[in-house]
């Protein structure tokens, strides 16, 4: 029979101490509150009361009972057992103890009560009232008198409790009135609560700087134009800056008696009218006000600062003030970033402490005795274990430029999840993309991801020379796929004026089998021999699906998932180094959490990748015809070309089913008239929804800020040079194969495109009409005096007519035109 947190209130209790973990504290007015800290047995509580207590009369009632229902309590009697049983559910019992000294409660009041068995009880009520009564049925005397007595007593209890304050609750409250000696009768002073904007007479401060901050808060809150008229280390004064007969004045000075600064004069009377300005609102104050806004958005505009000040405080700030404030805020933020950069070794130790088992490497170089940053690498243990356990053994590697003042490169490794979306694995920062940096990065990956010699793994990248050499040295057996999109972009740069057909090139890359590959190559050769030779020099087999392995269930011919990741961290790449690394880490945590919630909500055995692929292939099955061969084998004709399908082995000659693991159009045509769910024919476990849920079940652990970083003892690193001048946001230059304008998404109202009236000259070469040379026109022709040579044009009847014009001998002359007045002749 135990009760949790049982509370016992003893009325008219004496000064006694209860042991066995029971806390006894005076509440006031002769009332005791007994609170059980541990889960104590109620029986032990009552047994702990000594004999002197039991010699007094003890009464009890449950919290929901009236005072007229008091029951006498003796050690071990029936009422005691009932109280123990009831206390298990009520969690509280009210116990009443009698005083022995003729019922004297200490205030001269006296109450005589006859309770239950006719025994006489002397009670001190506390308000001087006296009550008599007798009852033979367990009730306490006259009910009305008893109620009045205990109601008055309850009022006194509430009054005493209201006046009681537990000082432990306010130990750290700075707004407590000052009490230097904590002696009774000592004078108390009020402190100013930071940010409240309240100033009053006899308010105390620890310094003049604290007083000035309170004045600024007051000026912003009231929207008044005030200024400091007296400065000093021990005194300061504030008056109205508008002038006239305004009596407003605040004077604060050091008081030697109490040892703090006190507001000794405060005249809060304004005879002037608010003009919307404030002289105490300096650029440093504005910088502090918008520090977090500028930290989150370094492009925060001056006009936005002015508008915010006017809306919040009804004050006007000049553009000069806000411009200076913005500069100071950026300097403060840059100081923070420089401190983080200088302590990057401490940041490394913090990452290793919060994410056990992770790999974090910082490499530096020393030049003329100055330690400078060189490389940084991080692979979190949670990401590494997840990729090794649940992701396909395929990675994409790419490098992108940093847009901060360090001007380095960010190298990132990205995998594929069960829904064919990118999954970040590791990233590093290096100075340049050369063979040394790529070798260093590949060796780190080789150790963390257990790549060994690359056998059984697939890597997708562009044709960066340093990366190609590093992969050949460290991963000689890896399946290295080249990004087809990069190859196509390089071809467009080689042939800028030639209309290189995009369709022909991608037909080569997306060929699933030898038949499709050879046909696409032949079409490319027929189009242009030069283009064909350029494609063959880049080894198209390295970017064509016809030569990829089928174990990974991945048909990627481009490194788009790495490009997507680079685009996702685009804003982070503009930040300083440590802030950029922290932003990338936080974005990864947000990404994992977001996809975890989607994975939990997803219903189905496989991810959406399977459903989308089947939907795309279903469109083309209407062009197929099925010829059964028996024993689960079929021949499917598509455009009069046959493909052998083995339903038992789950293979198709087109290799789509083999490579992706998802039924192709030929298989979908076979099962068209059968009651078979296409998802039942998926022969790859990489697309399981349960696997996708496991991928995002573990995330990176949080990391403490710079204030918690333990100093590692490593030398501080010299920060990179600070940017000078106004930083202009440069847009990425798009390649020739990219669209000049990005298509707008959404269903919002858009302006109609401008109507074209002339044919665009984009992509057309200029030819000079004088010397017939490309690249310039007759106005800028360097060949002065050369005969005009115009190419021949065809007349409507198909006859070529020379358009040359010249004056030299041997050149054809333009026939003279008749004069407009010739018909008068």
TrEMBL record:
Keywords: Metal-binding, Zinc, Zinc-finger. It holds the Pfam family DBD_Tnp_Mut. Residues 711-825 are annotated as: Disordered. It comes from the Eukaryota. Residues 752-765 have a biased composition (Basic and acidic residues). One of its GO terms (molecular function) is nucleic acid binding. Residues 767-783 form the CCHC-type domain. Residues 643-675 form the SWIM-type domain. Residues 725-747 have a biased composition (Basic residues). Residues 798-825 have a biased composition (Polar residues). This is Zinc finger SWIM-type. It comes from Arabidopsis suecica.
């Amino acid at each position: 029979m135990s009760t949790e947190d049982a509370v016992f209130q003893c009325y008219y209790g004496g000064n006694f101490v209860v042991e066995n973990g029971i806390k006894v504290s005076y509440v006031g007015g002769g009332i005791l509150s007994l609170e059980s800290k541990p889960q104590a047995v109620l029986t032990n509580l009552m047994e702990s009361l000594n004999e002197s207590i039991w010699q007094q009369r003890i009464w009890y009632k449950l919290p929901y009972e009236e005072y007229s229902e008091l029951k006498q309590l003796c050690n071990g009697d029936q009422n005691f057992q009932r109280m123990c049983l009831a206390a298990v559910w009520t969690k509280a019992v009210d116990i009443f103890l009698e005083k022995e000294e003729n019922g004297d409660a200490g205030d001269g009041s006296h109450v005589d009560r006859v309770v239950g068995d006719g025994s006489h009880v002397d009670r001190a009520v506390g308000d001087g009232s006296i009550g008599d009564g007798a009852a033979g049925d367990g009730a306490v005397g006259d009910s009305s008198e008893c109620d009045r007595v205990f109601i008055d007593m309850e009022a006194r209890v509430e009054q005493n409790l209201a006046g009681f304050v537990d000082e432990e609750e306010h130990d750290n409250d700075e707004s407590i009135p000052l009490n230097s000696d904590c002696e009774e009768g000592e004078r108390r002073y009020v402190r100013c609560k930071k940010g409240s904007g309240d100033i009053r007479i006899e308010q105390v401060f620890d310094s003049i700087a604290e007083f000035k901050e309170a004045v600024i808060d007051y000026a912003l809150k009231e929207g008044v134009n005030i200024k400091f008229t007296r400065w000093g280390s021990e005194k300061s004064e504030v008056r109205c800056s508008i002038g006239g007969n305004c009596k407003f004045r605040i004077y604060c000075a050091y008081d030697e008696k109490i040892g703090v600064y006190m507001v000794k004069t405060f005249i809060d009377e304004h005879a002037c009218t608010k003009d919307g300005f404030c002289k105490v609102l300096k650029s440093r104050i504005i910088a502090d006000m918008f520090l977090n806004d500028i930290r989150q958005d370094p492009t925060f505009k001056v006009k936005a600062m002015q508008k915010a000040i006017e809306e919040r405080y009804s004050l006007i700030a000049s553009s000069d003030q806000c411009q200076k404030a913005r500069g100071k805020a950026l300097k403060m933020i840059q100081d923070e970033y420089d401190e983080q950069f200088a302590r990057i070794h401490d940041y490394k130790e913090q990452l290793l402490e919060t994410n056990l088992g992770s790999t974090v490497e910082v490499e530096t170089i020393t030049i003329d005795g100055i330690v400078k940053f060189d490389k940084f690498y991080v692979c979190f243990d949670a990401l590494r274990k997840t990729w090794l356990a649940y992701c396909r053994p395929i990675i994409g590697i790419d490098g992108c430029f940093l847009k901060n003042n360090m001007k380095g490169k960010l190298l990132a490794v990205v995998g594929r999840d069960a829904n064919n979306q990118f999954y970040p694995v590791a990233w590093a920062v290096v100075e340049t993309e050369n063979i040394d940096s790529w070798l260093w990065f590949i060796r780190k990956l080789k150790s963390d991801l257990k790549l060994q010699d690359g056998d059984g793994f697939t890597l997708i990248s562009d044709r960066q020379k340093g990366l190609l050499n590093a992969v050949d040295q460290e991963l000689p057996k890896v399946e290295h796929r080249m990004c087809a999109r990069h190859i196509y972009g390089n071809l467009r740069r080689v042939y800028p004026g030639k209309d290189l057909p995009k369709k022909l090139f991608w037909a080569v890359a997306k060929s699933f089998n030898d038949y499709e590959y050879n046909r696409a190559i032949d079409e490319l050769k027929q189009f242009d021999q030069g283009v064909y030779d350029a494609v063959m020099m880049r080894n198209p087999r390295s970017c064509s699906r016809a030569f990829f392995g089928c174990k990974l269930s991945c048909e990627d011919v481009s490194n788009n998932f790495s490009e997507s990741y680079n685009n996702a961290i685009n804003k982070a790449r503009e930040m300083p180094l440590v802030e950029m690394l922290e932003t990338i880490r936080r974005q990864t945590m947000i990404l994992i959490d977001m996809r975890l919630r989607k994975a939990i909500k997803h219903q189905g055995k496989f991810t959406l990748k399977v459903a989308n692929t089947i939907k795309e292939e279903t469109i083309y099955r209407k062009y197929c015809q099925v010829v059964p061969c028996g024993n689960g084998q079929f021949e499917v004709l598509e455009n009069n070309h046959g493909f052998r399908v083995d339903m038992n082995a789950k293979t198709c000659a087109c290799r789509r089913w083999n490579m992706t693991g998802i039924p192709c159009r030929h298989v979908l045509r076979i099962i068209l008239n059968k009651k078979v769910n296409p998802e039942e024919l998926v022969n790859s476990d990489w697309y399981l929804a349960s696997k996708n849920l496991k991928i995002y079940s573990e995330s990176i652990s949080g990391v403490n800020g710079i204030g918690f970083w333990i100093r590692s003892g490593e030398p501080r690193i010299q920060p990179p040079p600070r940017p000078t001048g106004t930083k202009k946001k440069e847009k990425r230059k798009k390649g020739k194969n990219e669209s000049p304008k990005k298509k707008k998404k959404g269903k919002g109202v858009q302006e109609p495109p401008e109507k074209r009236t002339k044919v665009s000259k984009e992509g057309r070469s200029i030819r000079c009409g004088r010397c017939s040379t490309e690249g310039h026109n007759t106005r800028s022709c360097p060949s002065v005096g050369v005969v005009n040579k115009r190419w021949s044009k065809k007349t409507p009847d198909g006859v070529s007519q020379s358009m040359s014009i010249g004056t030299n001998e041997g050149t054809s002359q333009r026939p003279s035109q008749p004069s407009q007045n010739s018909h008068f002749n």
